Structure formats: structure tokens, C-alpha cells
């Protein structure tokens, strides 16, 4: 396989699937099946999931919620999604652990790098919930932080589009996709790959990012097998 240890960031928003809210069991099963194949191929898989299908702090602030409480609600939403994915993986016969950045035993163990590495080495999927545990950050930042921390080979950002484009492909039909692009070019073109906090953390720690469409089943394995899927952001 192309990578030995990956940090897979899954979008909370994608988890709602066609129903447009909450958790879609179809999407959960598709993600679980794809992750199972990666584990069976010997890849160590750590996962960070967003919470956008349930709550986003900024949305709450727009409706009069206190921003910090809204962000805390968003972080709790990522833990709900983490448990849902853990359950889907276990149903599929995959051993999976939820580690939380905020203490909440017995729902999940408190996150520590050493613990994550120990479970990964034992072939378990490690799902890290609770974001960074701090408000004013995003799940992309949590994914970048954990990717660097656990020394992943790459941060795989699974999303709704199949890579990084010259402009937002959902708004501009003439946008063209990059197979690869450097961090500097993303900055200079002002492209939206991740929020800049997350993006810069990756750049400064030489963590490559691969943006790809996780909603097309089989894409994760294609990518791991070295097929040209998505866009690689490199130094
Ligand atoms: N240059 C670009 N290339 C690709 N996608 C872009 C670009 N600019 C904006 N986008 C948009 O960014 C969205 C993904 O953003 P993000 O909020 O990080 O998603 P997620 O909820 O999957 O984490 C895509 O659905 C796409 O419409
Ligand atoms: O370290 C973090 C990670 C997440 N969040 C909150 O959790 C919400 C859900 O995460 P996000 O929107 O990043 O998820 P996604 O877009 O991937 O569904 C965010 O809006 C933030 O309010 C936060 O405050 N700190």
C-alpha cells in the first residue's frame, strides 16, 4: 500500500447522506466498509470526524448562541458521530476505539498519543472525537493536529468534491481539478482546501494532504493502491 499510517478526516456533513439531516446508515456503512478494506490491507487507520451534520458553532452564534458554547456543542457532535462510526465498524467486524480529546469516560478513553499508537499497532481503528477540545478551531484543525502528532504518512481529507479545483467546483462549472499542487500555490491562488489554521499546521510540519471524494465507494482503496485519485497537496 502507498501509506502505512493514515489520518482520515471525514466530513460530518457527508454523514447525513441523501436524507439531509442527522446520520445516514448507508453512508456510515459505506465508510465502515472502505475502512475495513484498508485495515485488512495492513494500513493503520486513525479517523477524525466532523460534526457539521448536527451542529456548527458559527451557525449557533448566528442564531444568538454564545460562540464558545456553540463550539462546545459542535465538539460534542463530533463525538456522537465518532460513536456512530465505531458502531458501524464493529458491526462490520472491525475493532475500533473511540478516544476523546475531552474527558468523558466511559464513552471513550481520554486521548493520548501513546494510546493511539498502541491501538493502531494492534490493528484497531482509532477514532479521535471531540475536535481539539478548544473552541474557535475546526475539525480540520483537529485532523491536522492529530495527523502530525501520531506521525501519519498523510492526512486524507474525504469530502464531497473529488479534489482541489482552480475555483469552487460547486459554484464555478469551468473550474479545473489539480492532480497535485504545492502548499505555496494554494496560498497564492487563495484556494479553499481547509481552513488556514489547519492548512498551515500541515505545511509547517511537512504533512502532505490528499483531498478526495470519500462518498464514491472504493475510492479509499484505490487511493491507497496508488491510483491517481483526488489532489495531493505537497511541499
Ligand atoms: N478550490 C476549491 N477546490 C475544491 N473545493 C472547493 C474549492 N473552493 C471551495 N470548495 C468547496 O469546499 C467544500 C469542502 O469544504 P469543507 O467545508 O472543508 O468540507 P467538509 O464539510 O467536507 O469538511 C467543497 O464542497 C467545495 O464546494
Ligand atoms: O477543535 C474543534 C473542532 C470542532 N469545533 C466545533 O465543532 C463544529 C463541528 O465541526 P466542523 O464544522 O469542523 O465539522 P465538519 O465541517 O467536518 O462537519 C465546528 O463548527 C466547531 O463549532 C470546535 O469548536 N473545535
Automatic annotation (TrEMBL):
GO terms for molecular function: ATP binding; UMP kinase activity. One of its GO terms (cellular component) is cytoplasm. Residues 17-22 are annotated as: Involved in allosteric activation by GTP. Allosterically activated by GTP. Inhibited by UTP. It is found in: Cytoplasm. The keyword Transcription regulation does not apply. GO terms for biological process: 'de novo' CTP biosynthetic process; UDP biosynthetic process. Pfam families: AA_kinase. Pathway: Pyrimidine metabolism; CTP biosynthesis via de novo pathway; UDP from UMP (UMPK route): step 1/1. Gene3D superfamilies: Acetylglutamate kinase-like. NCBIfam families: pyrH_bact. Catalyzes the reversible phosphorylation of UMP to UDP. This is Uridylate kinase. The lineage of its organism: Bacteria, Pseudomonadati, Bacteroidota, Bacteroidia, Bacteroidales.
Amino acid at each position: 500500500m502507498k501509506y502505512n499510517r493514515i489520518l482520515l478526516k471525514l466530513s460530518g456533513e457527508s454523514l447525513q447522506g441523501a436524507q439531509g439531516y442527522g446520520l445516514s446508515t448507508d453512508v456510515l456503512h459505506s465508510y465502515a466498509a472502505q475502512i475495513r478494506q484498508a485495515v485488512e490491507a495492513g494500513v493503520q487507520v486513525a479517523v477524525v470526524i466532523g460534526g457539521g451534520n448536527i451542529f456548527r458553532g458559527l451557525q449557533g452564534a448566528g442564531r444568538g448562541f454564545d460562540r464558545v458554547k456553540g463550539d462546545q456543542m459542535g465538539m460534542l457532535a463530533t463525538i456522537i458521530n465518532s460513536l456512530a462510526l465505531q458502531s458501524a465498524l464493529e458491526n462490520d467486524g472491525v475493532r475500533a476505539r473511540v478516544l476523546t480529546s475531552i474527558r468523558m469516560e466511559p464513552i471513550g478513553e481520554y486521548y493520548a498519543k501513546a494510546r493511539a499508537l498502541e491501538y493502531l499497532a494492534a490493528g484497531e481503528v482509532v477514532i479521535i472525537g471531540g475536535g481539539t477540545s478548544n473552541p474557535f478551531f475546526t475539525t480540520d484543525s483537529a485532523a491536522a493536529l492529530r495527523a502530525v502528532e501520531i506521525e501519519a504518512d498523510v492526512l486524507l481529507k474525504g469530502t464531497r468534491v473529488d479534489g482541489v479545483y482552480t475555483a469552487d467546483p460547486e459554484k464555478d462549472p469551468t473550474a479545473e481539478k489539480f492532480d497535485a499542487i504545492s502548499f505555496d500555490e494554494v496560498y497564492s491562488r487563495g484556494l479553499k482546501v481547509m481552513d488556514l489554521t489547519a492548512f498551515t499546521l500541515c505545511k509547517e510540519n511537512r504533512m502532505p494532504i490528499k483531498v478526495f471524494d470519500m462518498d464514491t465507494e472504493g475510492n479509499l482503496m484505490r487511493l491507497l493502491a496508488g491510483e491517481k485519485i483526488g489532489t495531493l497537496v505537497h511541499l
